Each structure stands twice: as structure tokens, then as C-alpha cells.
Give the backbone structure.
Amino acid sequence: MPDQPLPSTSLHNPLIPASADRPGDDPIFALHAEATKRARDGEEILNATIGTLCGDDGKIAVLPSVFEAYRRIPPEKAAGYAPISGSAKFLSAVIRDLFGERESARQAVAVATPGGTGAVHHAIVNTLEPGQKLLTSSYYWGPYAILADHTRRGVETFRMFDEKGGLDVAAYEEGLERLVNEQGRALVVLNTPCHNPTGYSLDDDEWAGVVEVTEAMASRAPTSFVLDFAYAKFAPPGQSVWRPHLERLARSTGVFVAWTASKSFAQYGARIGALVGLHPDGEERLRIANALGYSCRGTWSNCNHLGMLAITEVLDDPELRLRSEEEREGLRRLLTERVKVFNRHAKEADLVYPRYEGGFFVTVFTPDARRTSQAMREQGVYVVPVDGAVRVALCATPAHEVPRLVDALAAGVQAAG
């Protein structure tokens, strides 16, 4: 884990108080670095911390079609600046990737962002005032809180699961109403399908409940909704139920989709993403596009041009797109097999965790996440502690290592009890 920062006692300190005592490393990457060092030193380490999809040989999985697209890009074109908001062809390709030929594709605007992180950032700073809070589920991707804090906003959560193990729509309603009453506006950030960190995917009924609640709140105050789409391409077949629900919601609510090539195209390091906004009114779409483009100029200015050109090539070229879909489907099947093995062994071990049908991660509930994580580290197995659970990266765990992983989880939960 990263060293604790020392308190500043010098008068010659250029940092504002809010910045002076911040940690120097992300906790997940710190655990990953520790696991990597132990493995490099010769220990038999199982590293289920970081969200990159690896093959059963432990090497990062790639889509060869994407690297074919990179080779097609003229160097002098890639070396130039990308447009501030992203190239028109890239943005159109992303919108088609999300909505195809549906009417919603004609009601969408977008800007390029450095991954899904940049997309969530833009949604926060353009829909919430400083001092206000976004709403997300009680289990959530930790950087939401960092993004909110860094932009002088905050995070409020609702209880994610009810007593039956499904999405707690009543708790969602209560949390959203509270923020509307306190702030006079609200922003919801929801990651599905294949939620990080739980692996949970909303079903059709849960989506309907979320939309009904959100519409009711939007009739009282400006309300925005961000669908974090990061892992959706690895969901089981039939998980496209979100589209009609999101389209209905866009009639009353500011709807955004955080799209990223990091997971969908196994291009974590390229930092290519987009924030897509839906609105039925053309003038409002223009305002949204202008606001998001202004935020691009005011933060990173423009994105990785080579990566943007390559992903556009993959999305627009029929042959490359087909190849990329076939390659991704192979990786999805690889991940699905791990999910099946995990479910079988985890149930035999009486582990308690949410419904898990696909995705990079699953969380296993425990009375003491840090004690569980520590006990597992002593066995050479690394997971990430979160509040009330540990996050397990099946994406980085070979299928033959899953039984060892489950044994360590069972022992870790027992040690925490």
C-alpha cells in the first residue's frame, strides 16, 4: 500500500490545503504493484486486482484487428492534433456503435474523452454545481469519488441490493429524492451491464423501475443520468435491454452514455473514450455539445489522435468491424467460462455474492474486507477490499486458477468472521 503522506509544516508550501495530504497512488494499482513484485521475486502469486482481460497464459488479451487498424493510419495524419471535441467520423462511429440505426442515434451528440474516466468527469462538471453530490450505488468504482472530490463535488450512495439480492429500487428512489430536495438537481451514475465491482447486470424489470423513479424526479428538478457502459460488450447475450429504457428516459431526463475503447477493444493504454448525450431537442443538443467541447479544451484539450483514428477505422470498415466482433466474442467466451467455473466452486464453498452472469469482476461479501484481503495476501492471492466485500478480477484469473482463488476467498472470509 502507498506510504501515508507527511503533514506539511513548511511555510514554503505551494499546495492548497485540499491537495496537501492526498495519497500518492491509487490503492488498486498499489496492490497490483505489490503482487507483481512478489511474482517477479519468484512467488506463486494469483493477482486478481486489476481490470485487464488476460488469457489463460497470463498475457494481456488483444484484438489483432485493432493493431491492423493502427498499421493503416498514415504517420503524418496520426502526428497531427485531433479536433478538440474529437473527429466527426469518430463521434459518428461511436454513436452508431451504441444505437445503430435507431431514432436515438439521430438525437445524440458526443465528444471524445480519455477513456470512460474522462467521460464521467465531463458529466460531473457539466451537470452538478460545486458542492453538490452525484448519486450512485453503494458498491461503485472508486474513482467516481476521486473525480467528484477533485472537481469539488461529492458522492452519495443508495443501498444497491435488497433482501432478495436484486437492485433496491426503493432505496434508489429514496436517495434520488433526498438529493433533489437538498440540491434542486441530481446526477445519477449507474454502471451496467457487468457492474464494476459486483458484476451485476440490471434486468428488464429493474431498468423499468429505475426509469420510472428517475422520470418522477425529473418532473420536479433538473435530473441527469449517466450510463457507464465500460463493460457492456462482455455481457451475456440478451443484455441489450438498456436501449429502449434509456431512450424513454431521454424524453424527460438529461441522458448520457460513458463509452470507452479500453474494455471493448482491449485498448486500456490508448485512452480513447467518448461521452454521448441524448436529447430530443436540436437546440438543447447544440448546447450540450458546446458545453462538453468547452470542457475538453479546459482539461486535456484533445485526445490521442492515433488511437481515435484506429478505433474509427475498426468501427467504420465492415471487414475490420466483423473481425473485431469475432475476436471479442472469443474473449467473451473465455471470460464466460471463468464465470461458470467461479459460480460452481463459489456455491460449493458457500460464498455469498450478487448474481453474476458475466463481466470482468465479482464481489464476495465479507464482514471485514481488509482482514479478508490480508489473509488472502498471506496465501499469495490478491483481491481488492471494498466496503463490505472484496472485488475479484476474474478477467485476470486463468480458469485453472479459479479453484485456488475460491479456496483463498473462503479462508479469507472465515478469517474475517
